[in-house]
Amino acid sequence: MNVSFQGSPLLSRSLALAILIGLVGVLLLGIVVPAYSSYVDARNSVEQLGLALSRLNVSDTEVAGLKAEAARLTSAKIKTVGLLQSANDSLAAADLQNRIKLLVESVHGDVRSTQTLATRSEGEFRRVSIRSQIATDLPGLQKIIYTIETSSPLLFLDNIDIRVRPNQKAGAANEGPLDVSFDVYGFMGDPT
C-alpha cells in the first residue's frame, strides 16, 4: 500500500514532526512515567525498610540482657506478693495499726489499745506484729476476722482472747458487747 500526501513540503514535515511528538508523548505517558513512578515508590520502600531493620537490629547480648532483666523483675514481684510493702519495720507496724483501727471503726467497734510487738526474723522474712484490744459485737468481730484473714498483703491472727461483757438486760448474755484481744502479724522480705 502506497500512501502519498500531496501538499507542501513544509506542511508534510510539520505533520511528520507532530506525529513524532505524539508518539514520544504516548511513550512517555504510557511507559516511562509509570516505570519511573514505580521506581521512586520502590526506592522509598527500600529506605523505610532499611530504617526499620536498623531499629530492629538488636544484638543477641542485648536481647539476652533484656530477658534476664525481665526474669529478675518477675521473680522479685513474685517474691513480694503477699508481703507488707513498707520501707521499714516501724512503718509496717504503723500500717497494721492503721488497718486495724479503720477496720474496727467500719463495724462501729472501739479500739481500746494497740501495741507494736518486737519484730523477729523467720528465715528470709521478718515478722511484724501488733497486739490490739477492741470492743465490738459478734457480727462486727466476724467481719473483722474475715477481713484480716482474706486481706492482701497476707495477715495472720494469733492469741485471740474473747470475753463477753455482762449486759445489763437479763437474758441477753449472748448479745452483749465483746472485749477482744488478738495479735495480727504479716511478713516483710529480708533487706539483705
Tell me about this structure.
- With 192 residues, this protein is of the alpha+beta class.
- It has a domain at 89-189: 2-Layer Sandwich (Alpha-Beta Plaits), CATH 3.30.70.60.
- 52% of the residues lie in helices and 22% in strands.
- It has helices at 9-56, 60-80, 89-106, 138-149, and strands at residues 110-116, 120-122, 125-136, 156-164, 178-189.
- Strands 1, 2, 3, 4 and 5 form a five-stranded antiparallel beta sheet that branches.
- A hairpin with a 2-residue loop joins strand 2 (120-122) and strand 3.
- It starts with 8 loop residues before the first helix and ends with a strand.
List keywords for this structure.
alpha+beta; Alpha-Beta Plaits; 192 residues; 5 strands; five-stranded antiparallel beta sheet; rod-shaped
Strand content: 15-25%
Q: Kindly state the mean pLDDT as a whole number? A: 82
Which regions have little confidence, pLDDT < 50, spanning 5+ residues?
A: none
Main beta-sheet annotation: 5 strands, antiparallel
Q: Termini distance?
A: 105 Å
Q: Percent helix among the residues?
A: 40-55%
Anisotropy-based shape: rod-shaped
Topology as a string of helices (H) and strands (E): HHHEEEHEE
CATH architecture of the domain at 89-189: 2-Layer Sandwich
Task: Tell me the number of helical segments per DSSP (H or I, 4 or more residues long).
Answer: 4
Write out the CATH superfamily name of the domain at 89-189: Ribosomal protein S6/Translation elongation factor EF1B
- Oligomeric form of this entry? single chain
CATH class of the domain at 89-189: Alpha Beta
CATH fold type of the domain at 89-189: Alpha-Beta Plaits
Number of E strands: 5
The chain-level structural class is alpha+beta
User: Taking Cα atoms only, what radius of gyration do you get, to the nearest Å?
Assistant: 43 Å
